[in-house]
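Field guide to reading this record: the first block holds the primary sequence, the second block holds the structure written as discrete tokens, and the final block holds curator observations. Each block starts with its own label. This record concerns Actin depolymerizing protein, catalogued under organism Cucurbitaria berberidis CBS 394.84.

BLOCK 1 — SEQUENCE
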Amino acid sequence: MPPHNGLVHPDQYDWRDSNVALINSDIDHKVKYQSAATEPAWNNGVVGAEPGLFVWRIEDFEVVPWPRGKYGSFHEGDSYIVLLSKSFDGQGREGAEEKKLIHDIFFWLGAHTTQDEAGTAAYKTVELDEFLHGAATQHRELQTAPSDAFARVFPRLKILRGGVKSGFTHVDLDEVSPHVDTLLRVFQHPSAAAGRDAILVHEVAPSWQSLDEQDVFILDKGDKIYVWQGKQCAPMEKLKAAQVVHDLTIAKHVDVEVLAQTEPRSKVVVDYLGGHDVDLFSMQFHAPRPVSAATEREVKKLFRLSDAGGDMAFDLVKEGNGIGKEDLHGDDVFLLDSGKGIWIWEGRGASRAEKAMWLQVVQRYISWQQDAADLSVAKVKQGNEGRAFWTAVEA
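BLOCK 2 — STRUCTURE
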């Protein structure tokens, strides 16, 4: 079923009887901007005025600044908003004196976040975009499949268990505490495009079944820290593990022991994690990674969302590697499935209905293309495209 099916109003419904006609109008944007102008998180005199990185967590429907010392650390029971603002000149050179701020907004959804937290993050992302006068690129990020763009912002990403209480429900997860054994898995980002230095740190269940010989693990027992190096782990994983251990030992002075899997003494970690009957040298340690690269399809596709013919239509424009800038027209909205991610491009002259319907089309498209469920989703407006978008179009 085409993704635009079911998106039209029932025949008996007359949009002129409501305020639907005002969606994306000047009045609509002014009202949303006024709402954004009252949000304390955006009104610190810096957001939207200076380049920088800003992170907020959703707590009881509120946007709460995340401590800078925790930037790069996220809890899987929460939702976050991340703003990256960079200054460019007219030629696209970063850090120029004649500043034009380019904004990327990510709303990051933990694997165990609640629906109300995720909904608040999405709503507040739109509000933040209004505060930035619609100039931002909006990204939906899933914990289970971090995009290359997000990995470049946080090349040392750390994902922890636990979460805050929500207005409707409570994330029923064990909160991390000094009295609970913590096992951290250190591994490379699953996408090669993110770069070999993009390393993730993910808290996993403290069990020997969580061990994998391709990665490095950090076991924090409270009174001692063990580093277990799988026999096929990468040098960058060892380096990142050393940095994590350094951070852990700043707050508390405990012994640290580094053990390679090939050493007989590394069995002490396996034993402590419940693997007393495991033969260290005959066992092959393999555990699925908690995050993965999204399924990449072979064929890139470009679709157009347009009501120029009177009815809303969603049609395939072109597929393959011949897609270029010339295929985008400013009177419509386009969906680009690059194989690695989904991009929405909004033309300046797109109709109000086209602009209002793009999110529904993305949702339908993802349900239609089941292997696209884990793809990152980003939306850009004509004239505010960044390098990542044009790379996705022309790659």
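BLOCK 3 — OBSERVATIONS
Confidence is low (pLDDT under 50) at residues 1-25, 166-179.
Residues 201 and 345 are 33 Å apart (CA to CA).
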